[in-house]
Amino acid sequence: MQPFDSNSATEVEFVTFFTGGQSFSIDIRQVREIRRWSAVTPLPHAPAEVLGVMNLRGSVIPIFDLAVRFGLPPTADNVRNVVVIAAYESQTVGLLVEAVSEILSVSPDRIQETPDLRSDNSRQSIIGVIPVEDGMTRVIDLGAVIQTGKRTLQ
User: Fold this and answer.
1) Tell me: domain 12-153, CATH 2.40.50.180, correct?
2) pTM score, two decimals?
């Protein structure tokens, strides 16, 4: 599945960040804000990747630890961590990451398909990779991350 039109001359922008010591990115149109990490309210019986919920201007939103979601060690508690507030369709969520790196503008033809992976979680949540100077950044399918959390939380 190619989520971006590779025939389009328009560049696509991504917010890149690090979690689990690895580079990931999300479509900038899904990012609402970037906030400093603050404590969350844990939920009983929530999946491991859902740290809990936070109050964001009167709305309660789930906070995902993306490192755990992708099978990496949990994000260490650090005052430099940030939460990327992102929206997919009608749901807003927070993504705990170690640091936001940059805004990356690329032409859609630079986004390569994700190699066939053994992990279903990774295959469903990573929709492409983008070569960058110091390696690759993985493009996250925010909908897949959220749907996994919704199915587990209900």
Assistant:
1) yes
2) 0.84
